[in-house]
């Protein structure tokens, strides 16, 4: 069983592909994601879009049936591996966009949280229902959710397991936009708003902002200075400023 990796114009698209089980992440699907993220990292795609097969679910979480009977060590190794897989999204050379086209629960929500951006279709339903199973999130949710929506809302979602619809997700900043119409087309249109810019400079921007959540302000300001200086030294910065001065559109080369 494998997720689908396709190309839509300049975008890599991974479709979680197990619609019969609402795209629940079996261990083999997580291993496959791990390999596909590496493949995307080596490609010339300008953004990665992740979505779910079918019209019901982005991903209903870890495969609950597979969790039965695991030893403590197997469970710990599974958690470590899932975390390491999702963490790859933070270091991809291109931004990632989760197009949440239905349910995003548990591990599915954690996968979306690990993406640079999240978009929701109108029927999207999101949550961390692990508490109802006697569990807590284990693929990064307890750490990324409060960084995105704040501690109070994260505690409420994790400790009540309450489901949030698209409108509420947008209101609390869990998703960037609500998509009307075709989900993938909405993801592509959103990604086009930034893929016209320099990829390395986008990476500096993402890395600087992401460090804000886990760095004391003085450290964070130093990181910002370093990354802003690196951006300044790119050929694309030279091109961008020259184009402005000459009143023309810049032609960035990702250098
Ligand atoms: N795992 C396995 N199978 C699933 C899952 C899942 N997470 N979710 C749905 N399915 C399967 C169902 O069993 C069903 O299969 P079948 O037809 O063979 O019975 C099929 O998908 C369709 O599901 P439903 O019939 O339940 O569809 P409904 O529309 O009635 O309900 C829901 C949809 C509300 C999404 C419901 O399926 C549900 O509640 N699913 C479970 C959601 C959940 O609890 N997710 C969290 C899982 S735990 C987790 O993600 C922890 C991650 C961290 C692990 C850490 C390791 C250390």
Helix/strand structural class? alpha/beta
The end-to-end span amounts to 38 Å
Q: Report helical residue fraction.
A: 40-55%
**CATH superfamily of the largest domain, please?**
2-enoyl-CoA Hydratase, Chain A, domain 1
Integer average pLDDT: 96
Main sheet characteristics: 6 strands, mixed
**How is the largest sheet built, in terms of strand order?**
1-2-3-5-7-10
**Count the strands?**
10
Name of the CATH architecture of the largest domain: Alpha-Beta Complex
In CATH, the topology of the largest domain is named 2-enoyl-CoA Hydratase, Chain A, domain 1
Runs in which pLDDT lies below 50 for 5 or more consecutive residues are none
- Determine and state the CATH class of the largest domain: Alpha Beta
Annotation field: number of helices: 11
Write the H/E string, N to C.
Answer: EEHEEHHEEHEEHHEHEHHHH
Please tell me what the overall shape is: globular
Radius of gyration: 19 Å
Write down the domain tally. 2
Pick out its properties.
single chain, 255 residues, alpha/beta, 2-enoyl-CoA Hydratase, Chain A, domain 1, Lyase 2-enoyl-coa Hydratase, Chain  A, domain 2, 2 domains, six-stranded mixed sheet, four-stranded mixed sheet, 48% helix, 16% strand, binds octanoyl-coenzyme A
Short précis:
This protein is of the alpha/beta class and 255 residues long.
How is this structure best described in words?
By secondary structure, this protein is an alpha/beta fold. It folds into two domains: 188 residues, 2-enoyl-CoA Hydratase, Chain A, domain 1 (Alpha-Beta Complex); 47 residues, Lyase 2-enoyl-coa Hydratase, Chain  A, domain 2. It has eleven helices and ten strands. Strands 1-2-3-5-7-10 form a six-stranded mixed β-sheet, sandwiched between helices. The chain has a four-stranded mixed β-sheet with strand order 4-6-8-9. α5 crosses α6. The longest helix has 20 residues.
């Amino acid at each position: 069983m494998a997720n689908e990796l396709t190309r839509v114009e300049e975008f890599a698209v991974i479709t979680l592909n197990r619609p019969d089980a609402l795209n629940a992440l079996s261990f083999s699907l997580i291993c496959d994601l791990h390999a596909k993220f590496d493949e995307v990292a080596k490609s010339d795609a300008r953004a990665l879009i992740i979505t779910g097969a079918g019209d019901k679910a982005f991903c209903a979480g870890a495969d609950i049936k597979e969790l039965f009977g695991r030893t403590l060590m197997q469970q710990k190794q599974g958690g470590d591996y899932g975390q390491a897989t999702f963490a790859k999204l933070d270091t991809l050379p291109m931004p990632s966009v989760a197009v949440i086209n239905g349910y995003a629960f548990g591990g599915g929500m954690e996968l979306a949280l690990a993406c640079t951006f999240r978009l929701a279709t109108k029927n999207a339903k999101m949550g961390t229902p692990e508490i109802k199973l006697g569990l807590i999130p284990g693929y990064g949710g307890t750490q990324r959710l409060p960084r995105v929506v704040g501690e109070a809302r994260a505690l409420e979602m994790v400790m009540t397991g309450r489901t949030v619809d698209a409108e509420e997700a947008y209101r609390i900043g869990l998703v960037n936009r609500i998509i009307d119409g075709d989900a993938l087309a909405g993801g592509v249109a959103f990604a086009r708003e930034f893929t016209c810019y320099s990829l390395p400079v986008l990476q500096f921007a993402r890395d600087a902002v992401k460090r804000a959540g886990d760095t004391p302000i003085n450290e964070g300001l130093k990181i910002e200075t370093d990354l802003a200086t690196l951006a300044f030294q790119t050929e694309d910065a030279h091109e961008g400023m020259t184009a402005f001065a000459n009143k023309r559109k810049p032609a960035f080369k990702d250098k």
